[in-house]
């Protein structure tokens, strides 16, 4: 019996190690390492790391660039998540009833999501070209002078957000299409019998019943927004004047451009804390406030 | 009443069609821009379709940088990662759902914790570790560092939980080994989830840019996104060659759009499964 148990444990290891070893090597150990580095001063080259305690964090909280990046990250989250949810839901409501060619339209709207962010961002950088780009050509038809999309600090983030929203709205739509289809018909009919119009029916029946999907999408999109990199790298590289430098971008600039590994690690920890808080919130709120 | 309904119906139809065209328009714009001459592309107002479409722009762009190499790199690395993830996610999910062992609780909580950690935040230490292992600038590094995904494990675990226990018990009574049960009972029953895993992982890895760009400096090892991006930057240095850049973007995107059109049902089904997986 004892021996049997022993064999069983061995087999379990055989089944789990192919996943656990890479997880440990490229996930858990790096996490521990970045926490350690955040207490060190190191320039990547020198053989010795200097223990500086909480200095990196103190400097981070005294650094205006950190707060600017924090602000950009928050704006990026809100400015991408809210439109993605609203547009995704709107599209799903439009496509949920049977219309001719519905499947084709669904395909077209969803297609940006599968394409590489780098390639489509390059296409958008051509659309944003100030003189003859598509965006300004359309604006000029309406008598505007056009916008310097990627060079104006007031507009650069908007430009990046538009690409982000365009890429993910169709993805949110697919989730909502499924959720709306799962709303029981008898509930809608009951509401109709009570004399509820289309709008009331939506507010009182559909919207509460699809709230788990809304909640799921908000969390997933926020975590994605905190980690957005490709479109920023192609379109603005954090500029102009830091107006599109998110926390993640600040992290990589201080790590791989100015080689302040300790400082960079402290910013990374801030990101980790942000994502963990979001996940925990989804666990807590998800169980209480959301209809299942 | 019916007149109004009809009017509402066509308005609805028109809105949907307009939105779909709007969403797909950047792709159309990419292709037509790729076909223009350098003179025509700088004309104002822009033309919707080139006067004289230059189809050879695609061939010119294809040889202007080693795109065949980039694309093969991406396909090879993504395919290798898919194969490894199918194996290690399947085995891990099996252990978590159908085996009893002492470390089960520890492994489960580690995976749950890992799910909350943003991958991008550990790229810096990951880079240093990969350097210590002498895996920077190698295919091995590109593949190994992406060869496990917590999402994939969750996805398969969710699928295994839905297989009825009677089927497994029947296998156990027949004296089948764990490996046999996994291979001949569970995997055939959960094919759909494995298909989703393979597709989503392939797309994600083919599109992957940030991490592969960080860990490979050798142009021969660049994946297609990084290759395209350096072509874009160089094009900027020698006066922007927008038509060629658009052509290169087009053939980078094309394989994905083809895969998507062919496997639409599976990809859209993945939405259902992924919502389920993250709730579990």
What distance separates the N and C termini of chain B?
48 Å
User: What are the low-pLDDT stretches of chain A, counting only 5+ consecutive residues below 50?
Assistant: none
Beta-strand content estimate of chain A: under 5%
Question: What Rg of chain B do the Cα atoms give?
Answer: 24 Å
**Average pLDDT for all residues of chain B:** 88
Helix content of chain B: over 70%
Low-confidence stretches of chain B: none
Count of DSSP H/I helices of chain A: 13
The helix/strand series of chain A, from N terminus to C terminus, equals HEEHHHHHHHHHHHH
**How many structural domains can be distinguished in the coordinates of chain A?**
1
Q: Structural class, from secondary structure content of chain B?
A: mainly alpha
Protein name (chain A): ABC transporter permease subunit
Subcellular location (chain A): Cell membrane
Transmembrane segments (chain A): 12-36, 72-95, 107-127, 155-180, 201-223, 264-286
Membrane topology (chain A): Multi-pass membrane protein
